[in-house]
Amino acid sequence: MNGEDTLLRIGIIGTGYWGPNLVRNFMQLPDVRMTHVADIDEGRLSYIKELYPTVEVTNDYKKLVESPEIDVIAIATPVHTHFKFAQESLTAKKHVFVEKPMASSSEQCKKLIKLSEENDCKLMVGHTFIYTAAVEKMCEIVNSGELGEIYYINSQRLNLGLFQKDINVIWDLAPHDISIILHLLKRGPVEVSATGMSHMNPDIEDVATVSLFFDGRVIAFVQSSWLDPDKIRRMAVVGSKKMMVYDDIEPNSKIRIYDKSVEGPGYYDSFAEFAYSYKYGDIIIPQLKGGEPLRNELQHFVDCIVNDKKCLTDGYAGMQVVQILEATKKSLDAGGQRISIESVS
Fold first, then answer.
1. Alpha-carbon distances of 30 from 11, 98, 247, 302, 306, rounded to whole Å
2. What is the pLDDT of residues 72-93, one digit of tens each?
3. Could you tell me how far CA 308 lies from the centroid of its own chain?
4. Domain extents in the chain
């Protein structure tokens, strides 16, 4: 590490919507020193300086990239800038934390992964929901086999705005749900299809549904919208034994496990004898740990650097999500056609 001590020195590029949250959480972590912030908006820099007088601010991001006093650069800028900032930072042998989506294309992701490996730098993508207590509990439940064989997952992320100018609603909202689904199933889809519509901007879809097709007859649906009257953050995981619902809006009961299922007859002689058996049991609300997910995520990143461990949401995980997003664009352009997905190793 650089500097006078063993603390990791952090620089952040971007202080718009999400950047200040990164600054606040890095300031609270042990083993790090939040030193520099860069942004082209002088108003945002003044805001950060007022909140954190010890942090140096600049409108020239290259001062962070080129500084020998900075070990880590976190990037919270528009998606189309991610590759440029991450590439320059990794080339300068800085560890990089980049918000989702990782980059604008899987080819860019591959280049960033190669750079991180060549320069022995950690590259981590901000899929924050993976670090929530709720998703951690969901994984525990799925892995235990309590739900049985997973049949399908249905996810909704809906709200009114915020409209983006450079990416559609899938690229903006769906990465959260896609990353959770991949984490739960421990594998990627073999095919993807997407349908959507543009209402506000003719070139940018503001409502869309993505279908993910997995081996073993598992399917997942991801619905995203900037045009819904209600803010909805809900995911249902349906298994052969039980069903689980994750509602991120709920303050105290984010996860509910339903002892509900349906079984078809193993054997029948005629259509008249074909009957289904339904089970209606209890609803269980498991207790969840506390802690801010973003802080958990950044602490994990720091631990991976300090102890040279593999990041849970590393470059490969980030690239897998971007590959799926690319496939949704191809499917939208082809009227909802299924698009095959290249496996990520």
1. 16, 20, 32, 9, 12
2. 999 999 999 999 999 999 999 9
3. 22
4. 8-128+294-313, 130-291+323-340
Instruction: Please answer whether residues 319 and 109 qualify as being in contact, where contact means their C-beta atoms are separated by less than 8 angstroms.
Output: yes
288-302, pLDDT tens digit by residue? 988 899 999 999 999
Q: How many CB atoms lie within 10 A of CB 306?
A: 14
Residues with Cβ < 8 Å from 274, sequence gap 6 or more?
264, 265, 268
Which pLDDT score, from 0 to 100, does residue 4 have? 44
Round to whole Å and give the CA distance between 249 and 222: 17
CB burial readout 230-258, b (16+ within 10 A) else e:
eebbbbbbbbeebbbbbbbeeeeebbbbb
- φ/ψ bin of 313: left (φ > 0), alpha (ψ from -120 to 50), beta (otherwise): beta
The label of the residue with tokens 């996860």 reads: 255
Domain 8-128+294-313 has CATH 3.40.50.720: yes
Q: Is the peptide bond before 20 cis (omega within 30 degrees of 0)?
A: no
Distance CA 74, CA 39 (A): 12
Phi, psi of 11 (to 5 degrees): -120, 140
From CA 169, how far away is CA 155, in angstroms rounded?
Answer: 14
What does the alpha-carbon distance between residue 161 and residue 225 come to, in Å, rounded to a whole number?
8
Residue 10 three-state SS: strand
Omega cis (within 30) before 162: yes
CA distance 322 to 102: 7
Residue corresponding to tokens 């080339």: 91
170 pLDDT above the threshold of 60: yes
Q: Give the predicted TM-score (pTM) of the model.
A: 0.93
Q: What is the pLDDT of residues 141-167, one digit of tens each?
A: 999 999 999 999 999 999 998 999 889
CATH superfamily placement of domain 130-291+323-340 = Dihydrodipicolinate Reductase; domain 2 (3.30.360.10)
Q: Which three-class secondary structure state does DSSP give residue 193?
A: strand
Nearest to 35 by CA among 80, 81, 83, 3: 3
pLDDT for 2 equals: 41
